[in-house]
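Lab manual, section 2.4: Encoding a predicted structure.

Procedure: take the sequence of the chain (213 residues), apply the prediction step described in section 2.3, and record the output as structure tokens. A sample record is shown.
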Amino acid sequence: MQANDIKELIIGGEGSQVEFKRKISSAEKIARALIAFANTKGGTILFGVDDDGSIVGVESEKTELDLIELAGNHFCDPPIEPAIAIVPFNSKDVIAASVEESDDKPHYFLSSEDGEENKVFIRVNDKTVLASREVIKVLRNERQDRPPLTISIGENERRLFAYFETKERISVKEYAHLINVSDRRASRILTTLVRTGVIRIHTLEKTDYFTLA
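Recorded output:
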């Protein structure tokens, strides 16, 4: 990655595949961002760039690189090894850590803190957010080693398709109410249909919804 590449990323601003970090405050925070990019469409973290896009540079390359390595190897499962580039800007250095979309989804966040272990993060617009149970199922189903899936269309599926004739979207709770089943069973049906490509899942910061593909 060259200086012009960094400039283009900065001009484009933070988004689903770009995040700015003035400095590394902790390996755990970096791990969450690495996991979110790997679980979604990949992306690049620019260290030494402020939220407004101004280049402030990193204080210590070795310290930053050590923390990035710690984040990827110690707090990510499976481990994540980003591609690293150190790019100079007028005596200031920017570190770019790029992560490709993973073939080993989902990646989990591991932490010694209570309540933080085995969480899954994804990227939604310019934010790293906690993945829902449904999204985690979809991520598992995206693995290349998953066996082919065949389904039969029953009454529950037909009622969903009839619902979509008049409505554009549905949530797990709405679908559970529609077919009078538990949220868990509704979730299972919806994520199976996502895997077959019949419907799509859309993630917001606090909820998910499903639409026809």
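Check your result against the sample. The first helix runs from residue 3 to 12.
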